[in-house]
Structures are given as C-alpha cells and as structure tokens.
Amino acid sequence: MPGSDLTVRVGGDSAAGGIVTTGEVFARIAAYAGLEVYTTRTIPAEIKGGHVMFQARIAPEMVWSQGDNLDMLIAFDQESIDRYYPLIRKDGILIYNSNDSQPPAPDGIKQYPLPLNDLAKSINFQRGRNIITIGAMVKLFDLPFETATLVVEKQLGRKKEMLEQNLLALKTGFEYIEQNVTRTAPYHLSPRAGGKEEERLVLSGNQALAIGAIAAGCRFYAGYPITPASDIMEFLAGEFPKIGGTMIQAEDEIAAIAMALGASFTGLRSMTATSGPGLSLMTELIGHATMAELPVVIVDVQRAGPSTGMPTKVSQGDLRISVFGAHDDAPRIVVAPVSVEDNFYQIINAFNLAEKYQTPVIYLSDQDMSVRVQTIPPFDLNRVQLVQRQLWDPNGNGDGTFERFKDTESGISPMSLPGMKGGQYVAEGLEHLPSGEPDYTPEMHSANMVKRGKKIRNAAEVAEAWGMLERFGDLDAPVAICGWGSTIGPVREAVERAQAEGMPVAVLYTKMIYPLPRQEIWEFIDQRKAIIVPEMNYTGQFARMIQAEFWREVISVRKYGGIPFATHEIYDEIKKAYASIGKSSAKKTAPTRTVKPLKKTAPAKRKVARRE
Amino acid sequence: MIATIDPRIMTFEPVTLSPNDYKSGVHPIWCPGCGDFGVLSSFYKAVSELHIPTERLVVASGIGCSGRFPAFVHAYGFHGTHGRVLPLATGIKMANPELVVVAVGGDGDAFSIGMGHLPHAIRRNVNITYIVMDNEIYGLTKGQASPTSPVGMERKASPYGTVEAPLNPLLIALASGASWVGRGFSSKPKELVELIKQAMTHKGFSFLQVYSPCVTFYDTYDHFKNVTKPLPADHNPRDRASAMKYAMDEETLYLGLYYQEERMTYDEGFAAKREKAHVENYGVPQILSRFTR
Predict the structure, then answer these.
(1) Rounded mean pLDDT, A585-592
(2) Nearest CA in chain B to A221
(3) How is chain B split into domains, by residue range?
C-alpha cells in the first residue's frame, strides 16, 4: 500500500491519444485539492503513434524529484504493462485496460481491471477513455469529485459539447469503481493541514520562463520551432499582442537571432529560444553580438545530442558551446536556472545582465525542467527589478561627439538608439575604433579584446546580490556538492536523506556559469575533503571547468542516457565519498554548526536584482 | 520634392540636407571605378531629396564589398554577418516601424549565403528597401564565381569554367510575390536616384537589383552599357505577367520599375493583431492568475 507520497505513471500509445492529458489533468486535480505535484513526461519523436509515458509524483509536502519508486501504473495497453510492470513496487497498484491487455499473474501488486473500451462505448465517446480513467483514479484516491469537475472544466472546457461529454466520462469512471470495485476509497491522498489554503502556481518551466521574460520587460521575440523550446514561442505568441510585444516565427534560427539583434539595436529587450541544433546555428551571430556589444537573451532548452540526438530527452551537454562556442575569444554571460520556479527569477537576471553589460546572455534550461508541470509557490513580484541599459545622453557632458565604443573603467560604453540625434553609429562586426569606424590596427584590436573581456569578467560581481548562488545543507560539512541546473532536485532529496543518516553535505548551485563567481565558489570548495559535481553529460563539462578554474580535484558524477538523476544515485555518491575520506570525517573539521533542516517549502528568499 | 513622399511613411519631420550631409566622412575602401560608388552617390542624392533625417535612417548590410556601405553614410547602421541583412533589417523595422530602413548587399550576400531569407522578407512584406549591388562576382574574396555569374566563367576557383547556371534575381523576387521590383545600373545615376526614391517611398518590401560592375575582377561596364535599356513605355508595372516576361529576357536587360502592388505590410499586420488582442490593464499578475490554483 503506497504511502502519502505517491508516484503514478501513465503509459500508452500516443496514437490512441490522451495519455499525457490523463496524467496532466489528474496531477492538476491533485494540485487543486491542495497536494503538491511534480510531473515528468516522455513523448515519442513521432507526430502520432509511438509509446508515451507520463509520470506524476503527488505528495502532501513539496517534492523535488520524480521519485525513486513507482507506486502505481495506469496501463492503456499491453506494451505499458510489459515495460513498466516490473518497476512497480511490491505492494503497488496496477490499473489496466481489461479490454486491451492481460495482467501478469497476481504477485502482491493490487490489480484493478478497467474495461475502458466498453465504458467508452457505453457513453458513445470513444476518445473519452482518458477522462474515464481520471474519474476512476479520483475515486480510488478519495479526491473530491467537485475539484475534479472544476479542473476538467478549466482544462478541457473550451468547447461546450465536448465539456459535457468529458464530464460524463469523468462520472462514468468514478461510478464504475464505486459500483464494481469498492464503495469506500482504498487509498487516501490528502493535503497537509492548511495545504489547500496555500497559494500555488501550477505551471511548466517554459511557462515560468515566458512569464518571467514578460516581467523582465521583454517585448520582442523571434524563434524557430524546435522541441523542447517551442512552447515558449507559442506562449508569447498568445500574450505579446495583448501587451504590445512582437513575436515573429522566423524562417530559421539564424534569422531568429538576427531579428532579435536588430530589435535590440533599436532599444527593445529581445529574446530568442531554441535547443542545441538551433544554438549551433546561432553561433556566428552570438559572436557578432559580442563584437557590436548588443544585449540579447538566447535561451537553450538543452536536449540530448549531438546532431538531432534525442529531441525529447534531457541533457546538460551544451555548457561548452555556450561558454566557448565562437571563433576567437567572444566573451558572453551564461546563466542556468535550477528549477521550474527558478526559471522565472533567472530569466529576469538574464535580461538584466544582457542590458547592464551590453552582451549576449546564453540561458541554459533543459528538457526536464522545461516541460514538467509542477506546483510551486507564487512568484514574489516585489522582488522583480529591472536594470536598464546605459544610454548615451545627448544633453549630458562632453563635447557633443559621440563615440559608441569608447572604453570606460567598467568597459561598458553608453549606447545610443536610432532616432537619437547625434548618436549615429554603425553596430559594427568588423574590429573598430571607439567611433565604430572599421580599424585593423594591432593596438585597437588588443585594446578592444581587453575591453570586451573585462566587461564580462566584472559581471560575476552581481551574482551573489542577484540571487544566483544557492546554498543549502550543512555548510561546514567535509563533503560538498557543487552543481548547476536541474540536478538540484534529486540532490536536494539525496542530501536530506544523507543528513538524516549522519552524513552532512554542503551544497552550492551557481546559476551564473560564465563568468564563474570565482570568489564565492573558491570559498565554498576550499577546505572540503570531497567535492561531488553531478551533471547530465558524458565528459563532465562543468566538473572540468571547476578543475580548470580552481585546480581542485572533484568527483565528476555523470549521467548521459537522456533521463534525469534518481535520488538514490546521488545518495550513493555521497555514501561513497564518505567511505573514501574515512568515517571519522563525518565529524566536522570546521567550527561546529548544527545541521540545518532542509526547507521543504519554498527555497530561501532571494533577491533577483538590485537596482543599480 | 516633399510632395512625392507617400504620407504613410512620413512619420518624421522632413529636413533639408544636401547629399553631402549624408556622408559619414569615412573614406570608401572600394577600388577606384567600382560601381558601388555610383550606387552610394545616388543613395546620398535620393535620401536628400526624400528629406529623411539622418537619425531616422538605418542602413543595414551583410558582408562583401557592398557590406561596407553603412560606414560611409551619416545615419544609424548595422554591419552584420554574411547573408543576414534581411532578418536584421526585419528586426529593426518591426521593433521600431518609425525608422526608415534600407538593407544593402551584393549578389553573394543576397542569392547565395542569404538566399533563404529573401522569400521570407518578401512574403512578410516588411516595409523596407533592399538594394542588391549585383556585380556577378565575389569581389572581396578576390574573384570567384557568384550565383549570378554566367556559365563558363574561368577564375581561380573555377579553372575549367563554371557549369552552374546563373539565377535570375528579378524572377525570384517576382515569383516570391515582392510588392515592388525594380532594376537599375550604377552608370545611370539619374535613373538610379529615381528608382531608389520610388523604392523607399513604396509601402512594403521593395527589391531593387542594381548592376554594379567590379572593375578589378569582372569588368562588365561595356557589356551592361550595350545590353541594358529602359523598360518599354507600354509596360504596366501592375501587370506581373508582363514584368516576368521582361525579366526573362536574357538578350536585353531592361531597367526601371518592373512591378508594384499594394498589400498589407508586416508592421501593419502586427498592429492589427495587437488591436484585436488588446486587453485593458493586462500584465504579469493577470497572466499568473490563470495558473493559480
């Protein structure tokens, strides 16, 4: 019998339709009933047809990963049973379509047959199998039927006739369980005390990012469709016209970033979003943005590569191309959020960094955190502050002649915008004089290399104040985890488990990947006996960057199959690290501090940006 | 003449400046005798006669000899990467439709590396002017065949002669649905000034091919003087079939306005979209309410 923390997986053929809808709608019903949800999905590369899986973890408290155990499987077809039945925990549950599949011999897993095809036929609604299943699950888990009705109305209520059919399907599934299986619900999914009253957002990482971009003042977007970034474009296509913004679906990714740069040149906060293949295409113009010192935000929702790779699977393999992908030295800033919620805050940081330092900012999200729908605390809009780009003041001091690329102490040169009298200049891709006029002298090129470099190096100075360093665990522990991106979820749970067993761990996640906040990372890793760097790529791209920058050996833990870390995989590494440094090391060497309990709700309050 | 400007592009106060006032003071690096000088001086004259304020004018370019163009104009400029001038100019115009945006480039920029962008700028009908200085050769890289070079061209990269057929830029523009298509010649400055003015005052995407010979690697001055002549007086620029017929002529290369039509521009389309979608007092809190349980 599953506990209150339930992981449920829905599997079926995507041609039959509604697999993801089943999972998503059920997860939302649970969320609206006051529970916390964390979803994962894989979709086939095929447009229609192919196996598809949706998984939701539902718990009374906030959870941070997809979970290690499968408590319940909803199998729409035989393939789902064949694939996932062995993964169900010993006392778990199987709900299967008894019209379409045969269950394995009974072995302790509770089996519930659901004659889905017959039920669908009985209400003359062949495509209603998914909603019937949801109705059955609502009954099995004792969720309020009214909440289920509300969510179905909200999610599937666009067409009136369809809504009536869907509500009928919901009732059919609910009543089938009640009349044929059990009158009283065998399992209870109930929120913690007061859970229902707490405000929650239910959204995906891409949605959080798109809303964050709007909050950051972004009003120009150009992009080319690509999995798993397209829904950013689709979201902005719906919202931008309402607020005076411009969303262009470009003819390719090169055109997309070119349009964004053109718009930024006129003063608009501009963005494009893509995945690995698109980022590869954009590389030349990212170098141009460095040369012409133009702000732009380039979102890369990382997927497994190289080449077309696995478009629907996760990876963190684009770190190197983001930091170094250019001909010659083309410094830029690289930012990486860690979660669905963090996408909102870090995309605002990305825009502020681009504008402040007049530079391209590459933003590394990933497939896992971008498509997953989750319950998260409401965003704190009071923390949103916008840093404006430094503009040339035609009426300010000086002799009236404007030099767009004039070097300054910070390397940041005030910029003019088309329309400003006296500010005329060329956004030049050739090496240039402070005026912008092309110039190939060794002196000028050397000076500009230094100017463009110092500007970016200086950017690390804002990382701490802008909430781009997240620390938790026991900060005096001999074992540390230093990471980036969405691995933070399983790390959080693994550390919680390890600490409960007397193995303290210090954790630092940096959201500024380039430049690395040197001072802060050095202070964190110095004196540790073991530093674990988990990441989802084959060569340990971040681990090698840490080693190169700080000359410290680290334990590079890599997963590169296209799926996220499981909590136990991180936990095992912590255990191994303790074994390698000797048991006595668990006692702290540094001044003793009590082990801080991990916050189960919202991460510590962060500032997004400080007004300059 | 101020009166000749379409009031719909008159979002600025007209100014009176001489052609010289549009010179940036940066000396062109082109070879003496380059056709691009003729295009540049015609451009100075055209923008002067259109009374365009220098701060409202944006000249964008890609890479090639012609890519240096913006540096020589006293205006805002964007010297981008090879082949990308059209999406750059599209971004500029869509972000601020009050700017007068001119994209310039050569035949390599337009029809080779940047070819993928041309039909899309055309179908969007972005309200910009695209001047392609066509010399039928790669000049900056010292003389390789281009997409408009004739078959059999012998150069270092084609020692036995090219075997690729040249593209017909006007037919591409017409077939893609360009709302303004014209052709000029750098040695006919009077006509070229008029064509640039007409192109810039056209509401929508205007495509102007200009023969601009390369004196160093492919001197075609005499050739073009011999084979070009004005479009016949009976050609109706509203008649696309007639425009295509003259564009297909390979013996005589006609100069002038081939085709013009009026249709919704890209920024007008977006303005309409915004009007349709507009919601009062709408922002992040309203968006978030949709996702709040």
Answers:
(1) 48
(2) B91
(3) 2-263
Is cis: bond before B14, omega within 30 of 0?
no
Q: Is A258 on the interface with B (CB under 8 A)?
A: yes
Query: Looking at the partner chain, which of B55, B60, B273 has a beta carbon nearest the beta carbon of A421?
Result: B55
The answer to whether A44 touches A52, Cβ cutoff 8 Å, is: yes
Cα separation, A491 vs B160, in Å, equals 64
**A261 close to B (CB below 8 A):** yes
**Can you tell me the ipTM of this complex?**
0.97
Give the integer Cα–Cα distance in Å for B284 and A245: 13
Q: pLDDT tens, B184-209?
A: 999 999 999 999 999 999 999 999 99
Of the candidates A239, A285, A378, the beta carbon closest to that of B287 is on: A239
Torsion angle in degrees (nearest 10) through CA of A76, A79, A82, A87: -60
Whether the per-residue pLDDT at A69 is higher than 60: the answer is yes
pLDDT in tens, A405-444: 999 999 999 999 999 999 999 999 999 999 999 999 999 9
Give the CA angle between residues A263, A512, A226 to the nearest 5°.
Answer: 50
Query: How many angstroms separate the CA of residue B87 from the nearest CA in chain A?
Result: 5
Residue B4 DSSP label: G
Residue in A207, A381, A426 nearest the CB of B79: A426
Picking from A298, A426, A435 by the largest number of B CB atoms within 10 A of its own CB, the best residue to mutate is A426
Question: How far apart are the C-alpha atoms of B216 and A209, rounded to whole Å?
Answer: 53
Residue A265's closest CA among B67, B68, B92?
A: B92
B27: left (phi over 0), alpha (psi -120 to 50) or beta: beta
Question: Residue A111 and residue A94: Cα distance in Å, rounded?
Answer: 5
> Which CATH architecture best describes the domain B2-263?
3-Layer(aba) Sandwich (3.40)
Cβ atoms of A95 and A135 within 8 Å: the answer is no
Q: B-chain residues within 8 Å CB-CB of A430? A: 79
Mean pLDDT by 10 residues, chain B (293 residues): 43 91 96 98 98 96 97 98 98 96 98 98 98 98 97 97 98 98 98 98 97 98 98 98 97 98 97 95 95 90
Q: Would strands B180-185 and B206-211 be described as parallel, antiparallel, or unpaired?
A: parallel
Q: Which residues in chain A (418-447) have CB-CB distances under 8 A to chain B?
A: 418-430, 436-438
Query: What is the rounded CA–CA span in Å between residue B234 and residue B256?
Result: 12
Residues of chain A found within 8 Å of residue B75, distances taken between Cβ atoms: 424
B31 versus A612: the higher-pLDDT residue is: B31
Average per-residue pLDDT for chain B: 95
Model pLDDT for residues A207-241, shown as the tens digit of each residue: 999 999 999 999 999 999 999 999 999 999 999 99
CB-CB under 8 Å, A419 with B56: yes
Task: Give residue A401's pLDDT.
Answer: 82
| C-alpha to C-alpha distance for B178 and B173, rounded to whole angstroms | 5
Interface contact flag, B91 A265, Cβ < 8 Å: yes
Instruction: Please write the tens of the pLDDT for every residue from B215-270.
Output: 999 999 999 999 999 999 999 999 999 999 999 999 999 999 999 999 999 999 99
Distance, CA of B249 to chain centre: 22
Question: Token match 């991106």: residue?
Answer: A485
* Contact between chains at B84 and A255 (C-beta distance less than 8 A): yes
Least Cα distance to A346 among A328, A366, A327 occurs for A366
Residue A234 corresponds to which tokens in the numbers above?
């689709």
User: Tokens in use for A318?
Assistant: 């684009």
What A420-425 contacts at long range (C-beta under 8 Å, 24+ apart), as own/partner pairs, is: A420/A392, A420/A394, A420/B55, A421/A394, A421/B53, A421/B55, A422/A394, A422/B55, A423/A392, A423/A394, A423/B55, A423/B76, A424/B24, A424/B54, A424/B55, A424/B74, A424/B75, A424/B76, A424/B77, A425/B76, A425/B77
* Domains in chain A: ranges and CATH: 6-198 (3.40.920.10), 202-383 (3.40.50.970), 469-586 (3.40.50.920)
